[in-house]
């Protein structure tokens, strides 16, 4: 089955090194996905699920990744599981695959390689990620403005000139937990996105409007704004 449109997979990342955990969680959030980090086996067992995927370090302060996988499976969960390790040896890979991991990722690895591996694992478990909407949808913008390309270009220029101030207002409202102001800003932004054809940002703004305290949506919002405001290559 596919994940419902607009929903993000939930991933449990088990990693005891803070720097690695920060990098891996940020890369996974780019899928996009909701990521919960556990620093050891105890935290992983106590994590609130259910999860669509487990990404487990092979060696943890209070046990091994293989043992943790057995413990998580004991509850009857059939969640797809990936192991990650800095050990490049074939013996370690064979051990982890025999323990039940769908794949073994060797660190260091790029963010794109990580996302590709998790996408493949989710697809193999019958949970395909929804297609992310494009940053710009020319067809939608033209339809909104009766096919007038000059109007689309002018409106997009105005939209991009106003986006930094709107972005900052949203981020400031989030920082002070002012949900009413954040929702008001996002409501206006959704309308502007619709006319300009900024479909990815409109999708994120809609989901953040419904869950204004969601830190993952905050990060997705920042990333979407940065992509739109980046100078053309």
Polypeptide structure, described:
- The chain folds into 2 domains: 10-124, Rossmann fold (3-Layer(aba) Sandwich), CATH 3.40.50; 138-229.
- The protein has 10 helices and 7 strands.
- The chain has helices at residues 18-29, 41-46, 65-73, 90-99, 111-124, 138-144, 149-175, 179-196, 199-210, 215-229, and strands at 10-14, 34-38, 53-57, 59-60, 63-64, 80-85, 103-106.
- A 5-stranded parallel β-sheet has the order 2-1-3-6-7, with helices on both faces. A two-stranded antiparallel sheet has the order 4-5.
- α1 packs across α5 and α7 (149-175) runs antiparallel to α8.
- The longest helix has 27 residues, at 149-175.
- The mean pLDDT is 88.
What are the main properties of this structure?
233 residues, Rossmann fold, alpha/beta, two-stranded antiparallel ribbon, 10 helices
Question: What topology emerges from the helices and strands here?
Answer:
Layout: E1 10-14, H1 18-29, E2 34-38, H2 41-46, E3 53-57, E4 59-60, E5 63-64, H3 65-73, E6 80-85, H4 90-99, E7 103-106, H5 111-124, H6 138-144, H7 149-175, H8 179-196, H9 199-210, H10 215-229
Parallel strand pairs: 1-2, 1-3, 3-6, 6-7
Antiparallel strand pairs: 4-5
